[in-house]
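Trying the structure run again after the queue cleared.
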Amino acid sequence: MSLSDYASDGLTAELDNGQPRLLSGIEGVDSVFGHGPICRDTLEVAKRNLQDSFAGFGPSERFDEALLLFSRALKWKRVTYTRANVRVDRPGNQGVDPRSLRRIEECNALDMELYEWSLRLFDEKLREYGIGPGDLMVQTVSNWLFGAAQRVRQTAYRMQANAR
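Done. Tokens:
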């Protein structure tokens, strides 16, 4: 089965505008309880739900900003994390034949529209909570320091275990 065939075969609803389906919560369309046809109305319900029913959200490529948004929206004191299983050399669309890429885009046009719309809403939410470049820099440095401290602790534990 080709990639193009896989994308349009209907094997799973997630491959056919999966995010608008899930975010709409419309039974029979939401890909949890069924995967009936999806239309612009479904997209509009998904947008409304994302705007009105979630404390926060964010695209994975802007994880640090999303974490800041959650921390402000939910009044968390301090949020740090260490990165794990992050691939920096992730391949792009190179090597995917143009026909397959077009077919995938066709099957996910509403998904892509929701993504673009959600980026604008995400930027609005960041402004609403007063999150700017300085906050992101502090978050990035805090995460780096937290990760470095974690690595030092792990190394110390290993050295202690090896000394026994």
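The radius of gyration is 21 Å. Worth checking whether this holds up in the mutant runs.
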